[in-house]
Amino acid sequence: MRRLLKLIAVIAIIAFALTACDATPVNVPQGNVGVEAQTASPGSQTGRSASGGPTDEPAIDLGFTVYYIDVGQADAALIVCDGETMLIDGGNASDSSLIYSFLERHGITHLDYIVGTHAHEDHIGGLAGALNYATVGVAFCPVTEYDSRVFGNFVKYLGERDVSITVPNHGDSFMLGSADVKIVGPTRDHREPNNTSIVLKITYGSTSFLFTGDAERPAEQDILEAGHDISATVLKVGHHGSDTATTYPFLREIMPQYAVISCGTDNIYGHPTEDALSRLRDADVTVFRTDMQGTIICVSDGEAVSITTDRNATAQTNPTEREAETVETAEEYYIGNAKTHKFHKPDCSGLPDEKNRVTLETRDAAISGGFEPCGTCKP
Hints:
Elements (H helix, E strand, L loop, with lengths): L1 H21 L41 E5 L7 E6 L2 E7 L5 H10 L4 E6 L5 H4 L2 H7 L1 E6 L8 H12 L4 E2 L6 E4 L2 E7 L13 E6 L2 E5 L5 H10 L7 E3 L11 H7 L3 E4 L12 H9 L3 E4 H4 L2 E5 L4 E5 L11 H10 L3 E4 L4 E3 L12 E4 L2 H6 L3 E2 L6
Parallel strand pairs: 3-4, 4-5, 5-6, 10-11, 11-12, 12-13, 17-19
Antiparallel strand pairs: 1-2, 1-14, 2-3, 7-8, 8-9, 9-10, 14-15, 16-17, 16-18
């Protein structure tokens, strides 16, 4: 018995040794500095965090992806190509923590390029958050001085990273991974800060993306006169959809398939305006909006662009006025009182207790159901 046990032990030791010899070491590829490797496919978001970004991060070290970050009535976009990164604008100063968290969540500790399209707060305010989290290679801005606290903070945090502002010239170009980036504006000096906006075109394969900052009609005309190729698959609509930007001549040269409008819900400026939306309808452009759909993600394979949104993927982002009226009418409903058989508008001060409420989809349904209109709200 004792010999049998020894024999079994010897066989077990030999088997373990042979298994160890057959094991093949796995080589873990090293990603680019500052980019954390992810396993999810590009654009595969399943939700949104409380701080405004996606909860399941796409793989950002391969291919080409643009994140139009929802920063309310402001602008911010992160571009990733082959592991290299560029942040265009950063929202308002109040968005600093959102931008910080967005970069942190995606493992981006280094930005190859940072672009402040112009000196207004709703574009450069949140860049302080980016600079507090990530290092930066090159920082572009159309000016090196501007009399505001947020611009001073931008310069201050760049200085802490030992980086100074580079003022680009139209016609300048550089590579972001395998994507070509070309500066197409501004082509001359302007007193109005919006018209000093850096306008740039990114080309990846046969797809292209145009970022226009807050450039308005005069700056758009300058770019047209300079003869730059501004055709693009995706247009970031100028000045949040203001009627002073995205003019017909400019839009005709771009001829985008898609357009992204970055604006805040029920903002005081009325952005996007009906004038801007009408021009986009006339050009048969599919519109995406951060106010309605949250962060918008464009992924290009070099031949086509796929787009996902945080929410409301099928929202009517650019209805005609008649369609808008239909949607508004469809959203109307009434609250009936099962006890008194009165029906009310949803905001009536005399609504019944929850237990006695009946939802009535239309006024006709209320009347035909034997309900009488409330004398207070007069539905």
